[in-house]
Amino acid sequence: MKLTLFPVLRRPRLGLAALAMTAVLAGCASPTHKAPVEDRQAPATGSTVSTPVPAETPKAPPPGAENAGKPGYYTIKPGDTLIRIGLDNGQNWRDIARWNGIENPNLIEVGQVLRIVAPGVDASTVATARPVPPPGRVESKPLDSASPASGATAAAAPAPAASPVVAAPAPAPAAPSTDPEDNLNWAWPAAGPVASGFDEARSKGLAISGKAGDPVLAAADGRVVYAGSGLRGYGNLVIVKHNATYLTAYAHNQTLLVKEDQAVRRGQKIAEMGSSDAERVQLHFEIRRQGKPIDPARLLPPR
């Protein structure tokens, strides 16, 4: 008879899955095999975290930029409109739109370069200055001229001593222009007195006074290239193109009597005088030679 003092403890059989799990746990507990740790703490106050910035797509140049600075081209500036560009360059704004493939005249951008001479025209010859015909005579009168009171007498004053008068030599007459573009038969656009003369820096034309509704006449034969109020500072405006060199502008009208692309004759009534976009009733009249304002008195006949 055998006596067993201690019970025999049998080690349970472990399956393969249990053995694998045991090995993994042992590896994790081993100090020589540390598991990777991801630091999820927020950055300290004042520290910066750099974030990659995506590269910006380069902006395409404005249309026509390759022609900037060339003769016969114009770079659009802030505030420009096709009407203003046409007036300043002696062109019909519709022609400029057609030459540049512009369908919507309101969709132009600063920096865009426009062709301002017809395709096939040598821009260098267009920009060449030509002599202007000799001036006519114009007298400027203020709008409110004071007249002496009825019955008033001026105080007698001693007559000044006579002094010899030396006649100034008469200026040599300017040579007549040989350019057929200058041979236009000009007429005054209104019958009123001239309130202010030509000033290239400010007015760019003549201010002719009158009453609301007075007739405004075409100064020479031509074709209307603009009739509207889309040019700031001019009110109701008519622009007539007479040939490749000259155009005229009639501003501040109360009523326009012509439409764009309409042919007009010298002396034809094209508008009625008014005060649109002006402080008083007046006709602002400009003559532009290749887009440059010139003194109308140099072309209008003497009164």
The geometry reads as elongated
Structural class based on helices, strands and sheet pairing: alpha+beta
Beta-strand percent range = 15-25%
Mean pLDDT: 78
CATH superfamily of the domain at 184-298: Glucose Permease (Domain IIA)
- CATH-defined fold name of the domain at 184-298: Glucose Permease (Domain IIA)
Whole-angstrom Rg: 43 Å
Number of separate helices: 4
Please tell me about this protein's structure.
By secondary structure, this protein is an alpha+beta fold. Among the domains are: 65-122, Membrane-bound Lytic Murein Transglycosylase D, Chain A; 184-298, Glucose Permease (Domain IIA), CATH 2.70.70.10. It is 11% helix and 19% strand. The protein has helices at 16-29, 82-88, 93-99, 123-126, and strands at 73-75, 113-115, 194-196, 206-209, 215-217, 222-228, 236-241, 246-256, 263-264, 269-273, 282-289, 292-294. The strands form two sheets. Strands 3, 4, 5, 6, 7, 8, 9, 10, 11 and 12 form a ten-stranded antiparallel β-sheet that branches. β11 and β12 form a beta hairpin. α2 (82-88) packs across α3 (93-99). The longest helix is centred in the N-terminal third of the chain and has 14 residues, at 16-29. The protein is elongated and about 80 Å long. Residues 28-38 and 128-174 have low confidence and may be disordered.
